[in-house]
Known about the structure:
Strand order of the largest sheet: 4-3-7-6
CATH architecture of the largest domain: Sandwich
Order of helices and strands: EEHEEEEEHHHEEEEHEE
Amino acid sequence: xxxxxxxxxxxxxxxxxxxxxxxxxxxxxxxxxxxxxxxxxxxxxxxxxxxxxxxxxxxxxxxxxxxxxxxxxxxxxxxxxxxxxxxxxxxxxxxxxxxxxxxxxxxxxxxxxxxxxxxxxxxxxxxxxxxxxxxxxxxxxxxxxxxxxxxxxxxxxxxxxxxxxxxxxxxxxxxxxxxxxxxxxxxxxxxxxxxxxxxxxxxxxxxxxxxxxxxxxxxxxxxxxxxxxxxxxxxxxxxxxxxxxxxxxx
Length: 250
């Protein structure tokens, strides 16, 4: 007959004499688990590599005369050892699961730090740490961009004072975000009396900033920046205009 350890799933050969010796209580020689052998009996071996088992019965203390019971002492059991198992793997211990969960948690934290490194770099307490980490890993910190925080004020379009069929466009930009961000693109649309767009063009910061050198810099919070454009008047029917700020390419 055979019994199977419920912890490591190892199968052992067992005789009826061994089963009766300690009322069916045995100790697994593979993982040292104590279990009731008669409650985990199996009919056959699951693999053919089963070897001879060694069964050892620990000595029991002699009971006083007249105090012999039918039940086996609770602190004794049959110990079973074997050179092979039924192919079942041992269940991972708590320490292994804790280590796996720890690795998963570290991986998740690393992914969050990478995805939001741009936003985290704007925090004074984290800026230096994030910057040094990205330098070590060879990654770049993306610039945060919120075009909705950039306001276009004092915009006006007028005929050019010196040239015919030319327009002069003046405007001011203010970054209301609490972080530095790139200058936006500026799209100019000219319309006729019916509101139909007859000309449209997008200008880069290098084209509309009064001081082109500042285009390589970035927009500081709450600083007014002047923009100036001089463009050719495409059609005398152009009577209206629209200026739209667009997010710059990353």
